[in-house]
């Protein structure tokens, strides 16, 4: 063999062996901690459990997953931290709550080697890759409302024919909805957005805790139209739900991140889980099970016409801005 090729081949093998040894060393350290990782997140339970099972199969480390809305995840993590007893090792949540938690020292920074599979433009200097985009739009029950009769724009939601047929997450308790309302000017312009928010509140839409109960009301046709994640069309469609979404073109959404607890009981297991979570196998599971819009290179969502969606990232609200907007929208939607 050519000497240069031989040296190159040995270097590649050496690098591969080193990387493998480091992974094995991390996993071994995680097993010595207790062989488990506690994860809190807003990622759907079905997807989270599938990732946990795949992680267990690959590493022998068990994942305990607690799933709740983004707001409840942030609240529980904050309460535990302030009580001096954080029980979670890893947190998975929306970008804005994660930024708040990072600034308050509740989650920490970890530069995972799996981050190399993401473009630089989706990598936050503190929280790492924005592993998925959650896209918010209009979903509807196509058995209850024929596609020809469905709204064609956000502004259509306030028309008389849809009064009493719309459900949304309550902005008084759901941070993502607060963020969505505050960001509408990015796709509508400030004047139209302000008028739309007031008109929408005046129609008195049904208010629920989060996007999942909103989708469930659409599935049963109790309230056939919802402002929710458009990926629910794929997620619940796999189970036979007659859902479709309005092709709005530009759609607001939020990025999601994963980060370790700053006081993790199982810090090595936390790193090992994050490495796995951000890698191909986990990202593929998210897409196939939940129809997620993941940002890892080469993985596309299965939702029809997903490639036509123009993703517009929502405003990054700090804690004070959340409180201010929550009070503002609470007065409007609570009347």
Defining traits:
about 325 residues; alpha/beta; D-Maltodextrin-Binding Protein, domain 2; 2 domains; 11-stranded mixed sheet; two-stranded antiparallel sheet; 12 helices; 13 strands
In angstroms, what separates the terminal alpha carbons? 80 Å
Helix content: 40-55%
Strand residue percentage: 15-25%
General shape: globular
CATH superfamily of the largest domain: Periplasmic binding protein-like II
Q: Outline of this structure?
A:
With 335 residues, the protein is α/β, with parallel strands linked by helices.
Chart the SSEs and their pairings.
Elements lengths: L2 H31 L2 E6 L3 H15 L2 E6 L2 H13 L7 E5 H9 L19 E2 L3 E2 L2 E10 L24 E4 L5 H9 L1 H4 L1 H13 L3 E3 L2 H9 L5 E5 L2 H6 L5 E3 L4 E11 L6 H11 L2 H11 L2 E2 L15 E4 L5 H15 L2
Parallel strand pairs: 1-2, 1-3, 7-8, 7-9, 11-13
Antiparallel strand pairs: 3-11, 4-5, 6-9, 6-10, 6-11, 6-12
């Amino acid at each position: 063999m050519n000497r240069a090729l031989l040296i190159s081949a040995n270097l590649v093998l050496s690098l591969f062996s080193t990387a493998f040894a480091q992974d094995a060393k991390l996993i071994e350290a995680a097993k010595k901690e207790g062989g488990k990782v506690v994860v809190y997140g807003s990622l759907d339970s079905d997807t989270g459990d599938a990732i946990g099972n795949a992680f267990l199969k690959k590493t022998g480390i068990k994942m305990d997953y607690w799933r709740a809305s983004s707001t409840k995840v942030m609240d529980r993590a904050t309460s535990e931290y302030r009580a001096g007893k954080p029980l979670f090792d890893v947190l998975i949540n929306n970008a804005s709550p994660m930024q708040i938690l990072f600034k308050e020292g509740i989650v920490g920074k970890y530069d995972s080697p799996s981050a190399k599979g993401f473009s630089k433009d989706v990598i936050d200097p503190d929280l790492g890759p924005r592993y998925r985009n959650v896209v918010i739009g209009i979903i509807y029950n196509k058995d209850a409302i024929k596609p020809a009769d469905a709204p064609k724009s956000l502004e259509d939601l306030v028309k008389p024919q849809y009064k009493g047929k719309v459900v949304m997450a309550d902005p008084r308790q759901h941070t993502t909805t607060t963020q969505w309302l505050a960001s509408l000017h990015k796709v509508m312009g400030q004047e139209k957005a302000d008028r739309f928010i007031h008109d929408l509140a005046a129609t008195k839409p049904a208010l629920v805790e989060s996007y999942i109960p909103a989708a469930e009301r659409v599935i049963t046709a109790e309230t056939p139209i919802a402002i929710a994640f458009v990926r629910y069309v794929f997620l619940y469609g796999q189970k036979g739900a007659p859902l479709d979404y309005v092709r709005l073109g530009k759609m607001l959404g939020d990025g999601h991140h994963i980060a370790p607890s700053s006081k993790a009981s199982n810090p090595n297991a936390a790193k090992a889980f994050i490495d796995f979570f951000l890698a191909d196998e986990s990202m593929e599971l998210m897409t196939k099970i939940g129809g997620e819009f993941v940002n890892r290179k080469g993985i596309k969502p299965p939702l029809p016409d997903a490639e036509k969606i123009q993703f517009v990232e929502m405003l990054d609200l700090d804690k004070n801005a959340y409180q201010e907007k929550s009070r503002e929208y609470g007065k409007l939607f609570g009347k």
